[in-house]
Amino acid sequence: xxxxxNEIFSSIFGEGLNLGLPCTFIRLQGCNxxxxxxxxxxxxxxxLGTLMDEDSIVEKVKEFGNEWVCITGGEPxxxxxxxxxxxxxxxxxxxxxxxxxxxxxxxxxxxxxxAMSPKLPSSRMDKNMKxxxxxxxxxxxELKFVAANESDWFFVKDLxxxxxxxxxxxxxxxxxxxxxxxxxxLLTVGLEKVNARVLPQLHKVFGVK
Length: 209
Hints:
It is a single chain. The chain has one domain (about 5-205): TIM Barrel (Alpha-Beta Barrel), CATH 3.20.20.70. Helices cover about 20% and strands about 25% of the residues. It contains five helices and nine strands, in the order βββαβαβββαβαβα. Strand 4 (about 70), helix 2 (about 80-90) and strand 5 form a beta-alpha-beta unit.
């Protein structure tokens, strides 16, 4: 079955543990959330993308030659990724799949890294989340929280008390660059029993896609 694709492009990882590494991005069309501060609104609505079969997607990926491939959205888990993941594995690509965690995780054995970003109250999508899925993340995965205010910060603290996570935790300021307040919170209040760091959206700092 073809996948609905918004765009395929080459850039650097602007977020997360791979920050700054070259990557080919496959942005799929369609999302089950409507976050108040979404920066990819153009990828939200299904039916507005281009239908591409997996072979065509892989051929485009080969053109860029990057070691890493990131399947993003929208919400990639809305579509059946299995065949694409198999084909990317066959050409020895490292694959990161980004997800908001509201849908069932699957095919994780074919995914190098799951980058989960559960939504916090400032997004107004927190009621849609399945926060218990954070406990399915593996040590090599990443858990990212986009925080807009102090209420989001304390919501994260409560989540991490309730759910045991095995992976690295990333705090990212909403908007991508103004993170001084998050740094202060991490240094003065802290998060218990997790390896947490504050990171910007590097592509916004550099002004690249």
